[in-house]
Amino acid sequence: MDKLDAYALVFQMKANGADFYRGLSGKVENPGMKSILKELEEMEEEHLTYISGKIAEIRAKYPELSDEMASETDIYQQQVDKMSIEKYFHDENLGKYFILRLAYFIEADFLDFYSQSFRKYTGESKQVFEELIEMEHKRVKWMKGMIDKEIGEKGLSPDLYSVEEI
Q1: Residue ranges of domains in the chain, CATH in brackets
Q2: What is the CA angle 75-151-157, rounded to 5?
Q3: Which of 4, 11, 69, 160 is such that its CA lies 20 to 30 A from the CA of 95?
Q4: pLDDT per position as a tens digit, 106-148
Q5: Angle, nearest 10°, between helix axes 3-25 and 31-61?
């Protein structure tokens, strides 16, 4: 995998993420849940803007490269299926918490993917994944903080609802 392939793969994954959060937002009525989904969508859009810039830099330097994009598995829907989150969409107390938890585990999956790719690849691709690991750590930490805040505000039991620090 070269550097462009690495960015193209991640671009597609993040585009799926923005679409996913936008679609989930259309399924919920709770304003707090809609707000957090919008924030998550915007975070994915920020990643897309950054990655698009990196792809443009590479294409400007090497205009002969293919425009073909990599494909990947949709980890977003896999996490929704695994967590059965849709049953919480109408729960005022747990809905926002479960959306944050879903996003946390999706980002943890990305972090794991980036870490595995970092160990697997060499050269410029390795550098791409190292950079993405750093970005993803910040997002996971932010989400952990949001989950802890939600637990505190809703009076949920930290023993039952907290997530481990990654």
Answers
A1: 3-68+78-158 (1.20.1260)
A2: 105
A3: 11
A4: 888 889 989 998 999 888 888 889 999 999 999 999 999 998 9
A5: 160
